[in-house]
Each structure stands twice: as C-alpha cells, then as structure tokens.
Amino acid sequence: MTDPPVVVDHLTKTFGKGRGIADVSLTVEQGQVLGFLGPNGAGKSTTIRCLLGLYRPTSGRARVLGHDPANDDIDVLAQVGYLPGELRLPEALSGADILGRVRRIRGLRRTTYRDELVERFGVELGRPLKALSKGNKQKIGIVLAFMHRPRLLVLDEPTSGLDPLLQDEFDTLLRETAQDGRTVLLSSHDLDEVQRLARRVTIIRSGRIVVDDTVDALRARAPRTMELTFDHDVDPARLAAVPGATVRTATARHVTLTHTGPVAPVLTAVAELRPDTITAGPARLEELFLHLYREDGHAR
Ligand SMILES: Nc1ncnc2c1ncn2[C@@H]1O[C@H](COP(=O)(O)OP(=O)(O)O)[C@@H](O)[C@H]1O
Ligand SMILES: [Mg+2]
Questions:
Q1: Ligand 2 mean position, distance from CA 117 (Å)
Q2: Does domain 6-214 have CATH number 3.60.120.10?
Q3: Which of 49, 81, 53, 63 is nearest to 3 (CA)?
Q4: Domain residue spans in the chain?
Q5: pTM for the model
Q6: Which of 95, 109, 245, 253 gives 125 a disulfide partner, CB atoms 3.0 to 4.6 angstroms apart?
C-alpha cells in the first residue's frame, strides 16, 4: 500500500541488436517531481513505455501505483496521466473533438479543471490538428494528461515546442500538481527545466542510470569557476596539476579554470603564481551535467 507511486527495479529492455536500457532503477516518491534527465537516445522514453505497459521489459520489473503495468489494470490507468514523447493524435479532428472524446472515455463528469487548463494554455479548440503548429498540438497533449487530475503524471519531454510564456504556465501547473500531493515523473533533456522544477534528478545515459541524487547535492559538487589574470607570464600547467582542477583556457597572463571539491589546494597553487586579480564564480550545475553527458564511466 505504501509503495512509492513509481518503482523501476533493475529494468532491462533490449530491441534485437538495439541498445534500449540496461539495469535501470528509479523511484518516484509520493508528491515528488522527479526529473528524468538524459540526452536524446539515452533511454527515457523506453523506460517510460515499460512503466505504462507499452513495452514488455526483457528483465526486471516496474510498479506503478502498486501495480504491475503489464497487467493493463484499468483502475490504475485511470489514475495516470501520460503525455507521450511523440504525441500522435488524429489530425482530422479538432481540439474540441479530441477533448470531448477523451472526456467520455475517461468518464469525466466535471470539466471545470479541463476548461481552466484550456484557458490557461490558450488551447486552439476549433481547428483540425493538421492545421496546428507543434506547440499548439503539444498544449492539447498537456490538457489530455492533466484534465482528470491523475494521482500520477508521466510526462515525456512535455515542453518540447512550447514557447517561453507557456513554459512558465507549465512550470506553475507542475508546482500546483506537486503541492496537491500528486506525483510527477518528468523526462527532459533540458537541464534548466529540471533544475527549476525537480528537487531530485535521475540521469540516464546510453541506457544506464549514471546519477540519482537531489539537485542540491549535485549543485554542491558541481564545478566552480575561477578566472585569474597576471601581470607577468605564468605556466598554467602548475594549476592543471592540482587534483580536482581543470584549466579551461590559458594564455600566459590569463587563465580560467574549473574545480570541484575543497578550494584550499587550488588557492595554494594559485597564490604561488601571484595573480593580479581573481574572479571566482558559483557552482555551475550545467558543467556537471555536461560532464555527465559527455564522459564515459559513472559519476557516482
Ligand atoms: N521500438 C524500438 N525499436 C528499436 N530500438 C529502439 C526502440 N525504442 C527505442 N529504441 C532504442 O533505444 C535507445 C533509447 O531510446 P529512447 O528511449 O527513445 O531514448 P530517449 O527517449 O532518451 O531519447 C535508442 O538507442 C533507441 O534507438
Ligand atoms: Mg524520448
């Protein structure tokens, strides 16, 4: 009963020779927004499709609201809102047609909330979908996922194609949802979006989980930047030798570096070079993410 709403346990899905996902585990707690982050092709959609019973895992298991998604349990599906990564809706229908049909399928009596969402996102109801831009179709997808106030939202890159104003509205919607004690699995390749909306983040890369931590903890170990100028020529190799430090750009009199961990060893090495000026910047989560995206191996 007290199972977290989403539990993915050592899930593997292979596609013939294709890579798919390997040994993926993640948990989304009640009322949490989990950022599920990874570059294109990392395995976000594959994981999500296993969660919704759309793919059958090769091995491992998933639980959604305490149930096995492979069982097609109607009661469970009724409590989930899913926005697929590649939304495909009947192009000949209008937004109003589609919202009406899904309302009937879902047996949704009250449409107050749905109508509020239509209003807030400025959803185009009258024209057939084939006449709408990607962003305008995506808005319909958002309303479809949220309109029945599901206990769990599984959103696969929900903001792709939304303009910045609507991104703001989406942020508000997600915060309201979490405040309501409902749960969100938010897949994204957008670092900023995840930082804004999720307190916890699970990062997938090449089909494997490389990080599962809070955004705060990640920020604490993200690289800091330092910029140094000199009124004499220096050898930046002496800075590069400091553990945790990486020289990013260097001329004889100007060096930028990033460093992780305790700052004291860096300061000692810097002081020996007698810099003219130092500018130290805050930890940059982007650096850490980019590092995780690029590097081989696991960053734990
Ligand atoms: N139906 C499928 N058939 C074959 N390969 C697939 C299929 N779905 C996903 N893959 C492969 O699995 C990997 C992960 O893809 P995907 O889950 O779509 O990544 P993401 O959603 O993070 O961009 C990719 O290498 C992709 O080509
Ligand atoms: Mg995807």
A1: 25
A2: no
A3: 63
A4: 6-214, 223-282
A5: 0.85
A6: 95
Phi, psi of 265, deg, nearest 5: -60, -35
Residue 3 · residue 168 · CB < 8 Å? no
Cβ(38)–Cβ(82) under 8 Å? no
Closest approach atom of ligand 1 to CA 40: 23
Give 45 Cα–ligand 2 centroid separation in angstroms: 4
Name the CATH superfamily housing domain 223-282.
Malonyl-CoA ACP transacylase, ACP-binding (3.30.70.250)
pLDDT of residue 295: 59
For the stretch 241-289, pLDDT in tens is: 999 899 999 998 999 999 988 889 999 999 999 999 999 988 778 877 7
Q: Which tokens is 242 given?
A: 């400091």
Which residue's CA is the closest to the ligand 1 atom numbered 10?
20
Confidence of residue 8 (pLDDT cuts 50, 70, 90): very high
| Residue 47 Cα: closest atom of ligand 1 | 17
Tell me the mean pLDDT in the region 167-194: 94
Q: Which two tokens stand for residue 19?
A: 């890579």
Place of tokens 């949802």: 177
Ligand 1 residue neighbourhood (C-beta within 6 Å): 15, 18-20, 38, 40-46, 85
Distance 58 CA to ligand 2 centre (A): 19
